[in-house]
Every structure is written in C-alpha cells, then in structure tokens.
Design a protein that fits this description.
The structure holds 2 protein chains of 2 kinds.
Chain A: H1 2-18, E1 42-49, E2 52-59, E3 65-70, E4 77-80, E5 86-87, E6 94-98, E7 103-114, E8 120-127
Antiparallel strand pairs in A: 1-2, 2-7, 3-6, 3-8, 4-5, 4-7
Chain B: H1 3-24, E1 28-32, E2 35-39, E3 45-52, E4 58-69, E5 76-78, E6 88-90, E7 94-97, E8 102-109, E9 118-128, E10 137-150, E11 160-162, E12 166-168, E13 171-178, E14 185-194, E15 197-207, E16 213-220, E17 227-237, E18 240-251
Parallel strand pairs in B: 2-10
Antiparallel strand pairs in B: 1-3, 3-8, 4-5, 4-7, 4-9, 6-8, 9-10, 11-13, 12-13, 13-16, 14-15, 14-17, 17-18
Classes of the chains: A mainly beta, B mainly beta.
C-alpha cells in the first residue's frame, strides 16, 4: 500500500503543480518535499450491466462512505454488496460501506433488485464524512 | 506519511484514472471540494467544481440540503425533502454537462441564521439524459459534500441537553440533544454504580447535528443483579465538559 501511495504521489506531483497549488515547503536539511494545498475530491465511476453495478470510488476524505438510495423515495428497492439483499430505507437509504482511510479507485460490486416491474432509478452515493 | 501528500496522490490518481474508466465503461463524475469549512458569513462564496469524465452527457443538479439524523443510530444523511436554498444561493443549480465537461458553480451565503452556523450537504446528482428505461433499475450518480459553516469563535455554543434514560431490552441509552451551534463530536464516560460495585463504559464519539437528538448508547444492563443503580454520564465536546448527569436505574 505504501509503495502504491508513493507511486501515486509521484503522479500527483504534476497535477498538484499544474493546478497551481501553493508552493512546496523545503524542509530543514535540504531535501525537497512535494506538498501543498489540494482540494478534496469525491469521484464516482459507475458501470451498469443489467442489475449489477460496478462502482469505483475515489475520496480524499477519511470516513467517506458508499450508500444507495431511491431517487424518488419509492419503497421496495433492495441492494447488496455481499450477503443478503437489504431494503433501501426511504429516508436514509442503505449504507453499504464506510472507509476509515482515503480511497483511490476502490471497486465495489453492487447488486440491485426491485419488487415491481416498474422502472426505477437509484442514486449510488459517495459521501464525504457526515456531518 | 504526510496526509497532505496522500491527499495529493489520491486527487491526482482520480484525475488520471477518469479517462481510462470512461473509455472502458461509464466513467466518473467528480466534485471538489468534498468538504467546505469556514466561518459562516453573509456573502461568503465557495466554488464547487463538477467534472463529467464519462462518455455520455449527464443532467447535473446541485442542491444544498440540511442534514437529517437518525435518533437511534446517529446516521446522518441529506434531508431530501428540504433544501438550504433560503440560506445559500447556488449559481447554477441544474445544467447538462457534456462528456469531458467541467463546470464550476458558486455557493454564496445569502444569510446566516441566528444560531450563527449552517451545516448541511452539497448534493450533486448526475442523471443520464435521453429516453428513460421502460423497465428495470437505472443507477445514477450522487456525490455528497459536507458544508460546515461554523459560528464565529465568540458565538460558539457547545451546549447539550439530556433527557431520561431509555431502555430497549438490555440496551441502555441516553437521549442527548445538541442545543448548541457546532457539530463537534461528543464523547464521554459512563459509570453504573450499585451496591456491589461500578461498571464503566465509554460513549463512542458521535457528532450530533444542532437541534437533533441522538440516543447515545451507554452499554448494557446484562449481568447486573436486581437493584437500584446510579448511572453517571460525563460528556465532553471539543475539549470541554458539556454534561454531567446522574440518573437512577432500576433493574428488576
């Protein structure tokens, strides 16, 4: 993980500088350190095949989470990421996972099910830590 | 490792990854910043950038919403029945974003309530355009940013109010209402004292939205012999003790 993050950091340096972020600090002792202010980001990538959705999440915020909720508050929708299907609660939806750390390209496979044949829209939700 | 560096790495990888993902399949919808935090002030503005790196247009809706909090679990989600539009103006609430498109909308504080703070979500929904499906389920995008417009330091109130103990089965809970104007987490210690000794527990750190009540778990009565106990609770918020309460508990 540390190796991966180091690699990503090298990739990130270009983007950070290109974004015009504040200047890097030069630590005591000379060695250059890449750093600066970077806007926090949430990014959600959805690939749907039938009732299966591949979700790829990226978040710079520890404590972010993935959930699913009905677009129009209708009942009877279910979802699972493993184990059994659970109902989407109309007000609170269904919390699928919460991550302690930051996430880059975290893949999750989501399965959806409806109790009726009517078309439905669900909102796959990536959330910064709340509140 | 420096958290700032990690943040930079993740932000950069998100940007780098998006085009590949979009080619392979749906692609990504992104927003930044994920968290907006500053002192609440009328006229203050915050830019929020939305990027569609999918290969299809998306109908984007940006809505500031207040939080809804579950009394039993403490879970916090945007209240989809309400908005904060009377307090916050969004420069473009609904627009279509082409593949590869990017748009920055500005959130401006119209007014600050008497409480001096505004907390809520910046909800960005991305719906596919075109004909709706006639059957089946369509997955759409929703990104929830957190808006934390804190009161000025001189107007900060950390108060909470506790009601009577609640018991559900063996679970013991203390309803606590945030009567202040900040969202810092409360945590604390519990001591259940009876004739035979004391049982200690901790209160898990929980953020309570101003005005909301959460039944904080205090532990279980399982294993307590019949008798009368004193339940002492001390709650701490942002380094200050905000509640000292003693309640009587009868176990039959």
């Amino acid at each position: 993980m540390r190796t991966l993050l180091t690699g990503l950091a090298a990739l990130g340096a270009t983007a950070v500088l290109a974004a015009g972020s504040s200047a890097a600090d030069a630590p005591d002792g000379g060695g250059a350190q890449v750093g600066g202010s970077v806007l926090s980001t949430l990014s959600l990538d959805l690939t749907q095949t039938g009732s299966t959705v591949r979700v790829v999440s990226t978040s710079t915020e520890p404590g972010s989470g993935l959930s699913v909720t009905s677009f129009d508050g209708r009942s009877g929708l279910r979802a699972k990421v493993g184990g059994r299907y659970a109902l989407l609660e109309p007000a609170f939806g269904l919390r699928l996972v919460t991550w302690d750390g930051i996430r880059s390209g975290q893949a999750t496979t989501l399965h959806l099910k409806s109790g009726s044949s009517k078309p439905a829209t669900v909102l796959v939700t990536l959330s910064a830590p709340t509140p | 490792m420096n958290r700032l560096l990690l943040t930079a790495a993740v932000a950069a990888s998100a940007a780098a990854m998006a085009p590949a993902a979009a080619n392979a399949a749906g692609g990504a919808l992104s927003v930044s910043p994920a968290i907006v935090e500053h002192t609440a002030a009328r006229g203050a503005t915050t830019p929020v950038t939305v990027v569609n790196s999918t290969n299809a247009p998306l109908k984007i809706t940006v809505t500031p919403r207040p939080w809804a909090q579950s009394r039993s679990t403490g879970a916090v989600v945007p209240d989809r029945h309400r908005t904060l539009l009377s307090r916050l103006k969004v420069s473009a609430r609904t627009f279509t974003l082409a593949p590869g498109g990017r748009r920055t909308v500005t959130v401006t504080v119209r007014s600050v309530p008497k409480s001096g703070s505004i907390y809520g979500a910046v909800e960005t929904v991305g719906l596919p355009t075109g004909k709706a499906k006639k059957r089946g389920i369509t997955a759409a995008y929703r990104l929830i940013g957190s808006l934390r417009l804190n009161p000025a330091a001189s107007r900060r109130h950390l108060t909470v109010h506790a009601s009577s103990l609640r018991r559900k089965g063996s679970a013991l809970r203390l309803p606590v209402k945030n009567t202040g104007n900040t969202i810092g987490a409360v945590t604390g210690d519990v001591r259940i004292t009876g004739a035979r000794g004391t049982r200690a527990a901790t209160v898990r750190a929980t953020s309570i939205v101003p005005g909301a009540t959460v039944d904080l778990p205090l532990g279980s009565t399982t294993g307590l012999p019949k008798g009368t106990y004193t339940v002492s609770v001390v709650l701490v918020k942002q380094g200050r003790t905000v509640l000292r309460s003693k309640r009587t508990l009868r176990v039959r």
